[in-house]
């Protein structure tokens, strides 16, 4: 559990973060979203004391972060940034091993941890461990950056626009990889992004900031269906809200009894992907099957269109 209690950061007469309070449950992902200058990165950096707050307290599992020396605190918290931040003069393996070495891990344990993380990120340890960052693609560098942040098995991982420099295809894969890894390790993650689509895709809860203030902190569904202010609503984009609602639902949640012609859709696919497939193929319905190919029923365009409307909204 991370508790941020009335945190404020002031530079001279300017408050860049104003009286922010929120709690992040252990093992969840909280995403801080806002425009440039909203205070989101400053808030993130106050958690590991790269920026010292003017007032307020931050506690991790009940422990005040000011009870630890900054360097000790930072070794307990993973930190990944946009552009990966790898040391160019160190190999991939040496980069990942940075914090475990500082913590005095045994060489055999470090070697195994590096190999495990590279394998987890689908990078062969023998092939990629000896390489230098310049020999990697942008997506590979970013994966190594996240692996380095996870190397010392931190309970908390902070991420500042980690995928902002990646192209859309690689970015989507990196987001899915992060979600899978977070579920495997149970890491508590706080991520900063300006991309509401990314926030909705990854966040268990989303914190929307503007002008240094926290405007809303809620689940993606609540943010979409009940935005607290006009600014929050504008970030969502009126045209995109129905599709973002559908992205939070799988076809397994909207399947109904019956049959349909044509290629089946996977129950694990999002309702958004299901509607896209129906519109693209001109069908009103499609069969739905489980991962092992077992038929589960069908999904209809009408059912998906209903799921895309806000509660209480009348059909068009």
UniProtKB/TrEMBL annotation:
PROSITE patterns: ABC_TRANSPORTER_1 (PS00211), ABC_TRANSPORTER_2 (PS50893). Keywords: ATP-binding, Nucleotide-binding, Transport. One of its GO terms (molecular function) is ATP hydrolysis activity. Transmembrane segments: none annotated. It holds the Pfam family ABC_tran. InterPro entries: AAA+_ATPase (IPR003593), ABC_transporter-like_ATP-bd (IPR003439), ABC_transporter-like_CS (IPR017871), P-loop_NTPase (IPR027417). SMART domains: AAA. Residues 2-236 form the ABC transporter domain. The keyword ATP-binding applies. The keyword ATP-binding applies. It comes from the Bacteria. One of its GO terms (biological process) is quaternary ammonium group transport. Belongs to the ABC transporter superfamily. This is ABC transporter ATP-binding protein.
């Amino acid at each position: 559990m991370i508790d941020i209690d009335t945190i404020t950061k002031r530079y001279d007469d300017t408050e860049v973060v104003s009286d922010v309070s929120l709690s992040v449950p252990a093992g969840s992902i909280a995403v801080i979203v806002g425009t440039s200058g909203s205070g989101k990165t400053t808030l993130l950096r106050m958690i590991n004391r790269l920026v010292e707050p003017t007032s307020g307290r931050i506690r991790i599992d009940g422990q005040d972060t000011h009870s630890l020396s900054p360097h000790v605190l930072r070794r307990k918290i993973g930190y990944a940034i946009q552009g990966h931040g790898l040391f160019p003069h160190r190999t991939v393996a040496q980069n990942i091993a940075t914090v475990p070495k500082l913590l005095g891990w045994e060489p055999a344990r470090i070697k195994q941890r590096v190999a495990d993380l590279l394998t987890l990120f689908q990078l062969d340890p023998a092939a990629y461990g000896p390489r230098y960052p310049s020999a990697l693609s942008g997506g590979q560098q970013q994966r190594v950056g996240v692996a380095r942040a996870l190397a010392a098995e931190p309970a908390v991982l902070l991420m500042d626009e980690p995928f902002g420099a990646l192209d859309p295809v690689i970015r989507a894969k990196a987001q899915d990889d992060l979600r899978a890894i977070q579920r495997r390790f149970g890491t508590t993650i706080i991520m900063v992004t300006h991309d509401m689509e990314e926030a909705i895709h990854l966040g268990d809860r989303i914190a929307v900031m503007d002008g240094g203030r926290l405007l809303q902190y809620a689940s993606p569904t609540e943010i979409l269906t009940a935005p607290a202010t006009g600014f929050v609503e504008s970030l969502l984009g009126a045209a995109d809200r129905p599709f973002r609602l559908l992205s939070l639902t799988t076809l397994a949640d909207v399947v109904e009894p019956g049959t349909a012609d044509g290629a089946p859709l996977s129950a694990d696919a999002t309702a958004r992907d299901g509607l896209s497939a129906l519109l693209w193929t001109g069908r009103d319905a499609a069969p739905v099957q489980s991962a092992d190919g077992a038929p589960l029923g069908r999904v209809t365009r009408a059912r998906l269109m209903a799921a895309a409307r806000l509660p209480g909204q009348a059909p068009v």
